[in-house]
Amino acid sequence: MTNSIGELKGAEVLLVTGSNTTETHPQIARNILRGVDRGAKLIVIDPRKTDLAREAHIHLALRPGTDIALINGMMRIIIDEDLADDLFISMRTEKFTALRDYLHRLDLDEIATITGIDLQTIRDAACIYARSCKSVICYCLGVTQHTCGTNNVQAVANLAMLTGNVEKEHGGVDPLRGQNNVQGACDMAALPAVLPGYQSLANLEVRERFKAAWETDIPQTPGKSLTEMTHAGREGEIRAMFIMGENPVLSDPHLGRVEDTLQHLDFLAVSDIFLTETARLAHVVFPAASFAEKGGTITNSERRVQLCHRAIKPIGNCRPDSEIIMELGRRLGCPGMDFDSDAEIMDEISLLTPIYGGIHYDRLEGSWGLQWPCWDRDHPGTSFLHKYYFARGKGQFTITEHQEPREGVEEKYPFTLVTGRGSYHHYHTATMTRNSRRLVREYPEALLEINQDDCEKLGLQQGEMVELVSRRGRVRVKAQITDRVQPGTVFTSFHFWEVPINRLTIDALDPKSKCPEFKVCSANLRKVDHD
Amino acid sequence: MQDVMTICNYCGCGCGVYLRVDQGRVVGSYPSKNHPISQGNLCSKGWHLHEFIHSANRLTEPLMRKYGKLCPVSWDEALDYTTKSLLRTKKAHGSDSIGVLASAKCSNEENYLLQKLTRAGLQTNNIDHCARL
User: Fold this and answer.
1) Of B25, B81, B111, which is closest to A188 when you measure between CB atoms?
2) B97 and A296: CB-CB below 8 Å?
3) CB contact, 8 Å: B5 with chain A?
4) Domain A5-176 indexed as CATH 3.40.228.10
């Protein structure tokens, strides 16, 4: 997030796109709704009528996969209505003329047809967003999990820059991070093409610094991304894997292929707190300590690095992952694997990672954490980004064009299947939440959201089983009749191993981010007759 | 009884949570009133954050596959076998035949260590995690 979570309630306009915030980020949603209570206008872009969409002043229920067309349309309207921030554009950005010329060539009626939203609603939303100088955009995986995900994000950035809503306390572009430490795992370079703090692997000076600190050479060629590793198939280049605290056998798209890849590895080691679907395939399983049994820091969505404290000693024979990694490191002959505490590891992180430069345990102890960039010991941390300048200097407008999802609906597969997190009470592959008694009681089984109109056509009653089929696989799931989804669209979550919906999802990737298109694939469904 | 301040283990909000510890067991979760994000609030997952910690399904011993079945073994056996297998793969197929997945559920320190082990120890950049899932 370029803003802090607390700043959201001070915004005048909140545009939330591709995020089911009340269920997946409840405390961020609380700040958004607090803002609405104070008079802010809420615009929600989502094909589903989520709880937040019900609270919205304007709900833009677009056809799945048409985000770029919608945002281009909004930008065209903003320019036509003379609501663009010309001063900001000329001082802080570049390549605007090309985008403006492109937008002028767009046919707004065609945009209404592509997105399935009437033009007046798009116009209202665009004007509300552009008229305020305290407009915030929050987006989540509904924007990124498309084959055009990178362009979706670029379109959002274009919209924010067009109206100058980027550099302020109550204005900005805020990607909401899904997991407790997904921000930190990225910062720490658990990524194939960068070193900690997003420093380039290709930069010789950076590599030399790491080489000196780590006392060894590091390879220069970027590595493979997650889906490239888990979807390579049985003949893939990857022959051995170590997986720490992740469950790709349930979370990745096109599961048949993931299983085929992992089952044919020469060696697979998994470290986890439960025997997950992935751990069941492993040759070695390490019992890891849970968050309550170890210390360390995690970084939240607003870049706040916070200290966790150990509540109890590891249960049974469990060990924290840090100990497991260091034990393995020493045995593999990796230098620099002898840290006595998490604080010592953080000292090495801050030495090598400029954005974490001033983050040390003595500063985190007894505080609510520090928000990076925090350059040195005297730096107070940063609540919102891009004040005065962008990371790259000037903000660059880039033309983005509408692109249809990889799979369109057709006679054999007439439904669009959207997947994601589907419950306030469950989390991801539900390894933790389904081991929590009360959460299971609240939401015990997978449900497929389906519109009333479709149910009537299929002769389907509430709670009846349906078989859902795509080109890649099939599952059986209970139907939930609801107006949350539009006719022709169905939605379910990937929380339940009994309904491994990712057997159906497509492993088509965004070419740049390698993010799979979880949000659109074509499917068919039929009522299951009682056996 | 003792309350230990920590950060919720679920989503990216990063709420401040007190874990209530009684005789070595975590028995409850409570929001921090002053924490800038939670401000005295938690969601249903946060209020029941402690429930999975002592689940009977937790792994408590290292396991190794023997004759097709996962069996409990000592830490040394599991670590030695892992080391041997990784080194064997590296020797036979090269560094880039090893892949590592880190975790958005683990700490910064653990992720830092794992990418260091991957890059400096295994000599490959094949490391990623579930940021896109």
Assistant:
1) B111
2) no
3) yes
4) yes
